Amino acid sequence: MFFKKKAVKKTYDRDNQKPVLNCSICNGEQVAGFVNIHTNVFEDLMLIKSQEDLKVFKEQYGILDELEKIY
What we know:
The mean pLDDT is 91. The chain has one helix spanning 51-61, and strands at residues 17-23, 30-36, 42-48, 68-70. Helix content is 15%, strand content 34%. The termini are far apart. The protein has a four-stranded mixed beta sheet. By secondary structure, it is an alpha+beta fold.
């Protein structure tokens, strides 16, 4: 039998981090992650190759809004 893999809900520090897409100006590569709002340090978590990848990332962390893009 095959079972669909359950989506694991993950959490992040909503008081100190905000979800963003780090985008490359050169090749258009996008990496989803979190930036610390106090230190501006970016923590990369997932390479985004398609809209489906972005959807999975947002579902994992319960993000409803559009992600800000940083370059």
